[in-house]
Amino acid sequence: MCHSSLSTQPKPTRYPQTVPIVPAQPPFSEDLCGRATAALAREFERKTVCVIGYGNQGRSHALNLRDSGVDVVVSGRAGSASRERAKSEGLAQDDLAPAIDRARLVIVALPDQVHGDVWPEIESHLHTESVIGFLHGSSVHFGLVRPNNPTSIVLVAPKGPGTALRQRFVDGVGIPAQVGALDPSAHGSFEVALAWAAGIGCARAGLIESSFRDEAVADLFGEQSVICGGITALMESSYRLLIEKGIRPEVAYIECIQELKQIGDLVYERGIAGMRRAISDTAEAGINHAAPRIVSAQTESVLQELLNEIESGAFFQSFVSKSNDGSSASAAQRAQCESSSMEVVGARVRTMYEAKREHSS
Ligand SMILES: NC(=O)c1ccc[n+]([C@@H]2O[C@H](COP(=O)([O-])OP(=O)(O)OC[C@H]3O[C@@H](n4cnc5c(N)ncnc54)[C@H](OP(=O)(O)O)[C@@H]3O)[C@@H](O)[C@H]2O)c1
Question: Can you list the residues of the chain whose pLDDT is less than 70?
Answer without folding.
Answer: 1-30, 356-361
